[in-house]
Amino acid sequence: MPGHSFYISPESISTKTAIITSEESYHLQKVLRLKVGEQIRVFDGLGNNWIATIEYFKGQEVYLKLVELLEDIFESPLKINLVQGLIKGDKFEWVIQKAVELGVSTIQPLVTRYTDVKVSKGHIENRLERWERIVLEATKQSGRSLLTQIFPPVQWSTWIEKQKNSPVIFFNEAGSGFLSKAIIQLKEKPINSITLIIGSEGGWSENEVLEASQAGFYLATLGKRILRAETAGITAVALIQHLLGDLT
Fold this sequence. Notes:
The protein has 248 residues and is α/β, with parallel strands linked by helices. The chain contains seven helices and twelve strands.
């Protein structure tokens, strides 16, 4: 399989051809300096990927011939929705990158009682744009063909009111049950989707834990040691992929 991977928007694909534009085109032409006739892998972010041949360049556009539709062997059969409390600095970006590599389907940034991160409209718009670029690069690096969807941050009270899907595992370092017990119950019937909730750096308030319990979420810990918020998020995803997904 070709070593270089590029994203192409679904709108730029026809039956046998496709066009690479914008930053992906610049990377192909100016950074990698690929030539006409070379083969690459392209994906549409919806789960489809192909081997393609570079046919010609036209300005900032790269025209391709789609040679072969590839079987998707990289996506997990388990849809993981990561609801991660916002954390400072580049730590949240690290969580995004690693979660995408591990195969999560969606990421919901969460504002909790003890979140200590600026969430003004202008700041979030800039962050979202950067987060989406991180998602794209991590998708390409990991060989995936399905773009992880990342949502704007939401308040805990707003999110839990709209939460109707199950199962949901709420990770809390104190006063929760063992993850192994939750997994035993979850394995009683087949599941193809699960939501994992991780708090912010300051942890959860008593009221938030109570609301999670009243909502019927599985409450669980990640062991005896206290983990940083970013460590907890990735640890939770990796464990669930191993126990219920395809990380064997």
